[in-house]
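[recover] target loaded
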């Protein structure tokens, strides 16, 4: 089955927006043990993710 690219892009945007909305409404406990990160832990994790993204 093929659909026009414009329709595909609309569907893609809807799915991305839905996923983002789900992430925004779920509780903000994203560590393995469910605890919130303090500022330094969050910055460390962010730097690690950013570095891995640059290296990858």
């Amino acid at each position: 089955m093929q659909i026009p690219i414009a329709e595909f892009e609309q569907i893609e945007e809807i799915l991305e927006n839905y996923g983002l909305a789900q992430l925004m409404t779920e509780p903000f406990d994203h560590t393995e043990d469910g605890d919130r990160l303090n500022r330094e832990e969050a910055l460390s994790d962010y730097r690690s993710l950013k570095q891995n993204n640059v290296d990858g």
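[recover] notes: The chain has a mean pLDDT of 82.
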